[in-house]
Each structure stands twice: as structure tokens, then as C-alpha cells.
Amino acid sequence: MLCRKHTIAITAALLCVLHAVAGDLPVRYLGIEQGLSNNVITAIYQDHRGFMWIGTYDGLNRWDGYSFKIFRNIIGDSTSLSSNNIIPIDGDAGNNIWVGTQNGLNVFDPGTETFSHPRFLSHDAGPEEILEVRSILCLEDKLTLVGTRASGLVVFKDKDHPGTQIPLNTADGPVWRYNVFAMAYDAVHKKVWLSIKGHGLYSMDLGSNKLSVVRGDMVSVNTLRTDDKGNLWIGTAGDLIYYDAATAGFSYEHLPVRSPVTNFCYDKEGTLWIGTDGAGVFQKKLHAPTATPFSSANGTSLINSNAVNVVYCDRSGRKWIGTLRGGINLVEAGEPFFQHVLYKGAKDNKIDNFILSFCEDGGNNLYIGTDGAGLRYWDRHRNSYISYKNDPEDPGSISSNFITSIVRDDQQDLWVSTWFGAVCRLRKNSRGWERYTLYNPSTRAYEPNAWLVYQDIHKNIWASTTNDGSLYLFDRKADRFE
């Protein structure tokens, strides 16, 4: 038998879980408490086996659904990560995992579980190591594009041969040192979109590897995402911009607030999930003119941080929301198993929703026993409540506000066991409560803390007490418990 303080703890824990599933979709948390190496999330990727790869400020994490395996730099080991500060992650057609860091490019071989560090052929200095990697894009034909902070765009045909540096042609001649911040692949038109810091929005023809400027004024683009029709979403330092491939036109103000847009993903229903730095996550439904906040029914955020770095949709339909210092908020696919029902009285009182017991009334309505706020009768159709609370001046009121269990017997009378008030009965069609004491002749003491009231198959009413208490049987003729 659980003691009362344990039940309060369990009830509080269940309320926390239910708060996490409020709103449209259930959300759960993964962070350092579950073994993640760091709560600053920088990149997320799902590989061909279903493993989730999580980049952080302190190492690369592989999640198998149960636990994390962490990969870090090991001094003196050339097969380890070049740096613990992970930036982008992507996977190629050979199932290799490409990992960009603050200090180098890494390719993870899943067979040996080791890292190699491809170089590139500089236009003037021969083979060079890639330093800070800003973006990685693995394409269908084994081609991998690596955007760097200082060496521009580097194209790899495979991981075993040096990459080729691509020049940025300007009015003053070719530029080799530029910052490719974000990339997206347009599978419809077979081209790549690039955000080049300080230069603007570019496109790349994969046949010629030529970069062409599209919008020279978009110099501060954070993220890019194409849809299945070749249209492009552009996230900037303060806006969400849409490029219509059919009209070659741009439209603005698709977010209800001005906030830096950090990342996108499309779910299976065609909804665009939008991460922002400071305003949380937004959802833009198909054909909706503007995005709406991802929040609960009462308007509160469902994630633990509004500073979102990454939004990733996996193959199962789950959304992985990587935050700054808040770990991962995992939005499960599909509707939640539970609906959260929150009682709001005249005053904001937390004990109103500390629930200990339930009983149906024979129909769709429910008696709800609370841990300190009395008994409530919930009319589910009208969504209205009748409250029964103890009144010390009224002997016909319920004997206690701590309702441990409830039973509706075969005569449609309601029996309630309580903490501090033993047992009460509310007869059918009556408004007044009858109170029953539980006297133990062995100890010659009354036992006020009743834990359960129960009706057996023979219609007998039983009551149990706590703290090495007794079991009581109701004598209907004598109208008392023995």
C-alpha cells in the first residue's frame, strides 16, 4: 500500500507528463540527463539505419532510441573528430556521415566507426585542410558540397579524393575566399541554392559548377529549404521569405513576428516547421498565408527554449527541435494518447488539479477526488462542475477535502473515503452527506485516514485505513462500519 506522500509525488509526476502532451502533439525532452553530451544543439541528421546524429558544442552524439553514444576529439588520434564543436551533419549515398566542425571536415565510416579528414585542392596552394565548415549538402549522385567559412565552396566526388574549390565570379574577378553559410538542393530543376555571407543569394548549375547571383541584397540569409516543386523558403535575420519558382517572385512577412529564422523542415503532411532564435517554433500549413506558433491550447510554448537552432523531421514523422542550452524537444508523430483536462476555479490554486481518485456516474460524467480541493462532479457535455467541500460549520458537508477513493454502489449511492474524515456517503438524489467513523476496538481509537472504499460482488461495502490500520465492513442494518 502506498503512503499518502508517495501518491502526491506520483500524481505530481503524472501532471508533469500530461503538461508535456498538451496541445496538438506530445512532446518529450532529451538532454544531458539522458546522456546527451551537451544541451546546445547545432545539427541533427537521421542515417540510413534510423540512428539520429546530434551535433553539439561538445561532441557528436548518436541516439539509438535508448541511449547516446558520444564521439569526441582524442588528442593524438587522427581517426577521431577534428573538433568537438559540431556545425553541420549530412549523409552521402555510401552511408557515410559527413560532419563539419569549427576546426575541420570529418567523414564517419559506419563500418569501422572511425573518421577521415578529406582535404581540397586550393587554386593556388595545392592540398589544404578545410577549417571551419558552415554547411554540407550530400546529393543523390554521390556528389558532396561543403560550404566553408573562409575557403568558399568545395565539391567532393567522393570522400577518398581531394575536393575542388569553386570560385565566386564577381565584377572584380574570381573570389576564392568567401563564406557559404547555407545550402539547399532543388531536385526539380537540378540546381543548388547558396547563401553567401556579404554577397547574397546564389544558385549553382551542377553541370558547370558555376555560381550565379540571384539576389545580391540578401546578404544575411541563415537557412534555405526547397519544397517538392522547386520553390524556396529563405530564413533571414528578421524575416521568412518565399521564392516562387514558377513566377521567379519573392514574397515576405509569412511570420507573425520579426525574428531571426534559423532552420526549416517539412513534415509528411506538407507542413513547414520553422525554428527561430527567440520566438520558438512556428508551423506553416499548406496554402496558409502565415505561420502560427507551435503552442498549447492556452497559448503557452510546448518547448523548453525559444532559442531554436535546428528543426528536423525524421522518417517516422517525428520533429526534433534542437535548442540553445535546452537540449532536444522531441515532438512525437500523431495525436497524443491523453487529453489534458485542467480545472480552473475562481482562484488559481494548484491543488485544484492534484487528483487522487475517479468514479463514473453511470453515464459520461465523472466524480473527481482531489488531494485537498474536495470532490468535483464534472458534466463533460456542458463542461461544468459541481464542487463538494468540507464546511466545519455544516455537518451535512463532505467530511474532508482529501478524497482518496470513490465508489458508486448498486443503489447508486456515492461512497467516498477520505484522509482526515474517514468515510462519507451521498445518497441518490440527496444533497447532504452522511459521515461514518471507523472505530478500531483493538486499539480503542478512531481511524480518520481511509484509503480505499470498495464494493464487492456480493454488494458489500468495504473500507481500508492506513498506518497499520484495519479493514472495515459496512453493516447496512446497523448503518455503521465494523
Model description:
- The protein has 482 residues and is mainly beta.
- The protein is 4% helix and 45% strand.
- Strand 34 (366-370) and strand 35 (375-379) form a beta hairpin.
A few lines on this structure:
With 482 residues, the chain is mainly β. A six-stranded mixed β-sheet has the order 11-10-15-14-13-12, with no helix packed on it. A four-stranded antiparallel β-sheet has the order 1-32-31-30, with no helix packed on it. It is elongated, with a radius of gyration of 31 Å.
Detail the topology: elements first, then pairings.
Elements: H1 4-20, E1 27-30, E2 41-46, E3 52-56, E4 59-63, E5 68-71, E6 86-91, E7 97-101, E8 104-109, E9 114-116, E10 119-122, E11 126-129, E12 133-138, E13 144-148, E14 153-156, E15 163-166, E16 168-170, E17 173-175, E18 180-186, E19 191-196, E20 200-205, E21 210-215, E22 221-226, E23 232-236, E24 240-244, E25 249-251, E26 261-266, E27 272-276, E28 281-284, E29 292-293, E30 308-313, E31 319-323, E32 328-331, E33 355-360, E34 366-370, E35 375-379, E36 384-388, E37 403-408, E38 414-418, E39 423-426, E40 433-436, E41 439-440, E42 445-446, E43 450-455, E44 461-465, E45 471-475, E46 480-481
Parallel strand pairs: 10-15
Antiparallel strand pairs: 1-32, 2-3, 3-4, 4-5, 6-7, 7-8, 8-9, 10-11, 12-13, 13-14, 14-15, 16-17, 18-19, 19-20, 20-21, 22-23, 23-24, 24-25, 26-27, 27-28, 28-29, 30-31, 31-32, 33-34, 34-35, 35-36, 37-38, 38-39, 39-40, 41-42, 43-44, 44-45, 45-46
